[in-house]
UniProtKB/TrEMBL annotation:
It catalyses: allantoate + H2O = (S)-ureidoglycolate + urea. GO terms for biological process: allantoin catabolic process; purine nucleobase metabolic process. This is Probable allantoicase. It comes from Kiloniella spongiae. The keyword Phosphoprotein does not apply. Residues 22-167, 188-331 form the Allantoicase domain. It is an enzyme of class 3 (hydrolase). Keywords: Hydrolase, Purine metabolism. GO terms for molecular function: allantoicase activity. Pathway: Nitrogen metabolism; (S)-allantoin degradation; (S)-ureidoglycolate from allantoate (aminidohydrolase route): step 1/1. Its EC number is 3.5.3.4. Belongs to the allantoicase family.
Length: 333
């Protein structure tokens, strides 16, 4: 798959292997040269000329030693959120003479750490890898998984593993009368589209906790023409909104002057058609002034709509950065 197609996947789907979800590399057969945890870092891999440690050249990724007795290396990854995997990127950036010639990925569903009795499914067959390059493989499997096993043949280094997909939330058994964060990625919320996301990571908008810096949020470029910026979010479940949080953490000289939220109950359509429809949705939250580096809480007294919704469109005026958007509500039948 081409780089442009990879970029489309990265924009459309979330990286389920991100530590922001709580994803962990649980174990590896060997990590002599470079720690396994580096492989899932959110930042792009870097190369630092002349940096060495006690084991040799410092590399930004997971790297095993040279195998001399046969076999191959693998590592075990627990996804922080179960999800349907649409594609993976096995990135060997900066590994030129020490990359694995091939790799494959298996997946499973398990409450506990997999053992010898676990049934694994191969979602990425053995795939040839090259030096210092992204290797994107599309995955055709609708099953939501929460464990992965990355095999490299026979050894070597992987800079980054990205697992693009959609978080899966099983709402059966959830308290229908309770309040849930309907927009949270871990609850199935997702970004449908936006007009601009020049800075930061747009998916951070729906993650847990407060942003750690300005890069951990959605920020648009400086607008030099009339109008405003916007982003459309699909909720994990239809619901009636009880509370909204708009957090401008770390955005001090670049927070939006104000915001508003439109909403609708959408039963069908493509992402493109939903974005078009969003221009005509009812106003849920009328335009509100925002402050720098602050959590803004809006309750039902602020809302103009009380019926169940499935999607929201956050409008910011005229531009700027939002760290988190949280839509809390009760589940609709």
């Amino acid at each position: 798959m081409s780089n442009s197609e990879l970029e489309k996947y990265a924009a459309k789907y979330v990286n389920l292997a991100s530590p922001k979800f709580g994803t962990q590399v649980v174990s590896a057969t060997d990590e002599f040269f470079a720690a396994k945890e580096r492989m899932i870092a959110d930042s792009d891999a870097v190369f630092i000329e002349g940096k060495f440690d006690d084991h040799g050249k410092w590399m930004d990724g997971w790297e095993s030693r040279r195998r001399r007795g046969g076999g191959h290396d693998h590592c075990l990854i627990r996804l922080g959120a179960k999800g349907t995997i649409r594609g993976v990127d096995i990135d060997t950036s900066h590994f030129t003479g020490n990359y694995p010639p091939a790799a494959s990925i298996e997946a499973c569903v398990s409450i506990d750490e997999p053992d010898e009795n676990t049934e694994w499914v191969e979602i990425v067959p053995a795939t040839s890898l090259g030096a210092s390059a992204h290797h994107f493989v599309k995955v055709e499997d609708e099953t939501p998984y929460n464990w992965l096993r990355l095999h490299i043949y026979p050894d070597g280094g992987v800079a980054r593993l990205r697992v693009y997909g959609e978080p899966f939330c099983d709402w059966d058994g959830r308290d229908a009368t309770g309040i849930h964060e309907l927009s949270a990625l871990i609850n199935g919320g997702r970004v449908v589209g936006y007009n601009d996301a020049h800075y930061g990571n747009v998916w951070s908008l729906l993650t847990a906790g407060r942003g750690v810096d300005m890069e951990d949020g959605w920020e648009t470029r400086r607008r030099r023409e009339p109008g405003n910026d916007w982003i459309v979010v699909a909720l994990g479940h239809a619901g009636t909104v009880d509370k909204i949080e708009v957090d401008t953490a770390h955005f001090k000289g670049n927070f939006p002057d104000s915001c508003s939220i439109c909403a609708a109950h959408v039963s069908e359509g493509t992402d493109a058609s939903i974005i078009t429809q969003s221009m005509f949705w009812d106003e849920l939250l009328p335009q509100q002034k925002l402050q720098a580096d602050n959590i803004h809480i809006f309750d039902s007294e602020h809302f103009s709509v009380s019926k169940p919704i499935t999607h929201v469109r956050l409008n910011i005026f005229p531009d700027g950065g939002i760290s988190r958007l949280r839509i809390f509500g009760r589940l609709a039948k």
